[in-house]
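In this section we walk through a basic example: taking a raw amino acid sequence and producing a predicted 3D structure, encoded as discrete structure tokens. The instruction is simple. Fold the sequence below.
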Amino acid sequence: MISADTKDALARDVPSATHCREALVAGLALYGDVRGEFVTHRNAVARLFWSLLDERKSHPIETRPPTRLHRLPTFAIALPARLRATFPKPVHKCDRLIEVRAAFLACGSLAAGAHGYHLEFVARTEAIAARLKWMLRSAGVPPKQALRKARFILYYKDFDAIVELLTHVGAFAAVLALEDVRALRETKNRIHRLVNTEAANLERIAAAAAAQRRVIEYLRSAYGLTRLTPALREVAELRLTHPDESLAELGRRCNPPIAKPTVSSRLGALSRLAAQLRGGQVSARGAR
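The resulting token sequence is shown next.
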């Protein structure tokens, strides 16, 4: 959807300078040529190309129905003879950027899916791919290259490189849309990290509390909680009464309230007493 919206927005932005319009129509013809026709699946792009033709009366837009391979309708315009030849590379930087825009309109695509960001150009010949690669490098955004089913692919996956290129060709709405997508993803990822951290903390607290309860229940059966000192007995009884609370929460329930390290120290004393009991090292006297 973002690719189609970007193309429709760019198709409505017609350059005012004559040389830029000439570079745009030549670029569209070069990168959109399929056996002597300019072919696209976007009506707005077809109308842009047609509006830039001097011969538009004799070169109407032909609409073809969707096929099993192409689910969208196809719009085709026969190329005038003057646009069937490859033009020299533009001298002016603005014309080179206009040609890159034409390449995106004719053979480019943009995606911001679950697997990341992706902008690519599909060139039909190696020579056209080499020309477009030169254009992109001259714009300061060199692409990566791949071969897919005998087609030459120039692509970007880096977010900053995609934004820079879209800015160069004037696709400002697409840049804002991508920034929104990235901000939303970063927010979701941050929330997930916080939730996962909190869940891990709760699991650790629950596991520690369960171990503490097992120790205290063992002391109650093997030793008796009444034989503990008042401080240890208070913490032991609070842990049994409030099995899911943190050490800080248990400390606030003590009378008087005590800090979390103090609660941890008293629970540690209970664990050591239980270990001594299991090892037969404790006499019949009360715990200190």
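Looking at the output, two observations stand out. The chain has two domains: 2-170, 186-278. The longest strand covers residues 116-123. In the next section we compare this with other chains.
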